[in-house]
């Protein structure tokens, strides 16, 4: 049996905006197991970051509302926890790394002091112990001359080095969960590969569970054990990385796979973009949100939401094509592992 560390159940998040209520996350369910890496993929605006921020209770107070759902972590619902307790959990048990390392770093404070203060706060270490641990963490993430670099300010590090420092800070307290939101998007390809390797190495050493948010299927292939595909605030397909890559069942997943270059594939093979754009989440209808863009739409798709169906152990999909009443001949080529 899998050892579950986090369970997100029926999460709904709305934003109150001038254009109405934006339903950014609409009934998200998933679990995260100990030591695994779960990738959340999807186009821009699909609700990946909002899901992560809801888990960490980092949504803006002014206009964000979690209207329902549970986030169970070690038998407690994070959404019901007093803010003070959440603040203790953040950074010590669940850490987050964002795309821009400067969101986590204070530009006016030396790197060493930032790491040392975090360690003292969360791990009750003396200044001396925290300094030794900070040096070791910097060495672990491959910062040369770690001891001297403690005295540098963030702007004296390169972008890739800054992200390494942020990962070092995020992992310094051996968190049980690391949520990495597009951690390598801002970096060039070589540095990107190094950072992903670093995260994998550290995970192998510490057993941390990782949720990685990305729109890059290369990152997914490199990192993930399981994948959740998000579209318009919902998880439309979920499965092991092999199932998602070699046996995609949702036309949106298929579209994503066909629209992105893959490693080890003939570079001359044409990429097919998904036509159209995601729906306006302030005026979303009742049917399948992908219906207007889906090449396999049936009438029912426009009026009724598809029901989630488990098609294989751990592989689930929300699509009318999976309904028993849908004739098999309507199944598109490519669905069922033939792309
Ligand atoms: N503070 C906010 N106020 C209003 N709407 C917001 C806010 N933050 C996010 N949204 C909306 O919520 C939806 C989901 O956004 P989210 O950032 O989760 O997307 P994403 O999948 O992470 O995309 P990206 O890859 O671009 O970060 C979008 O429609 C976005 O406009």
TrEMBL record:
Keyword list (alphabetical) reads: ATP-binding, Cell membrane, Membrane, Nucleotide-binding, Transport
Question: What are the residue boundaries of the ABC transporter domain, all occurrences included?
Answer: 6-257
Primary localisation category: membrane
InterPro entries the record matches: AAA+_ATPase (IPR003593), ABC_Ni/Peptide_Import (IPR050388), ABC_transporter-like_ATP-bd (IPR003439), ABC_transporter-like_CS (IPR017871), Oligopep_ABC_C (IPR013563), P-loop_NTPase (IPR027417)
What's any GO biological process attached to this entry?
peptide transport
SUPFAM superfamilies assigned: P-loop containing nucleoside triphosphate hydrolases
Q: Which domain of life is it from?
A: Bacteria
How this chain sits in the membrane, per its record, is:
Peripheral membrane protein
Task: Quote the Gene3D superfamilies the UniProt record gives.
Answer: P-loop containing nucleotide triphosphate hydrolases (3.40.50.300)
The subcellular location is:
Cell membrane
Q: Name one GO cellular component term.
A: plasma membrane
Q: Name one GO molecular function term.
A: ATP binding
Q: Which family does the record assign?
A: Belongs to the ABC transporter superfamily.
NCBIfam families in the record: oligo_HPY (TIGR01727)
Protein name from the UniProt record = Peptide ABC transporter ATP-binding protein
């Amino acid at each position: 049996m899998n050892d579950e560390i986090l369970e997100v159940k029926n999460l709904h998040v709305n934003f109150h905006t001038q254009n109405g209520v934006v339903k950014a996350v609409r009934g998200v369910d998933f679990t995260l197991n100990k030591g695994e890496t779960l990738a959340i993929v999807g186009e821009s605006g699909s609700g990946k970051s909002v899901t992560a921020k809801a888990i960490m209770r980092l949504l803006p107070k002014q206009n964000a509302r979690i209207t329902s759902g549970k986030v169970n972590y070690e038998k407690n619902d994070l959404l019901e926890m007093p803010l003070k307790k959440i603040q203790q959990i953040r950074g010590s048990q669940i850490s987050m790394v964002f795309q821009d390392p400067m969101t986590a770093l204070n530009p006016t404070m030396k790197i060493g002091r930032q790491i040392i203060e975090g360690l003292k706060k969360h791990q009750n270490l003396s200044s001396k112990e925290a300094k030794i641990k900070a040096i070791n963490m910097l060495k672990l993430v491959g910062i040369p001359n770690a001891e001297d670099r403690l005295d540098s300010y963030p702007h004296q590090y390169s972008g890739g080095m800054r992200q390494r420092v942020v990962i070092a800070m995020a992992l310094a307290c051996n968190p049980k969960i690391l949520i990495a939101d597009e951690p390598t998007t801002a970096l060039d390809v070589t540095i990107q590969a190094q950072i992903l390797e670093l995260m994998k190495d550290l995970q192998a050493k510490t057993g941390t569970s990782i949720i990685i948010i990305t729109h890059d299927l290369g990152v997914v292939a490199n990192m993930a054990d399981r994948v959740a595909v998000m579209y318009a605030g919902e998880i439309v397909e979920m499965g092991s990385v092999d199932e998602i890559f070699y046996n995609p069942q949702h036309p949106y997943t298929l579209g994503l796979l066909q629209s992105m270059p893959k490693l080890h594939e003939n570079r001359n093979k044409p990429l097919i973009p998904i036509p159209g754009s995601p729906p306006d989440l302030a005026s979303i209808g009742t049917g399948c949100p992908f219906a207007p863009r889906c090449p396999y739409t049936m009438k029912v798709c426009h009026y009724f939401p598809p029901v989630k169906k488990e098609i294989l152990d751990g592989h689930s999909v929300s699509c009318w094509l999976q309904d028993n009443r849908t004739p098999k001949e309507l199944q598109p080529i490519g669905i069922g592992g033939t792309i």
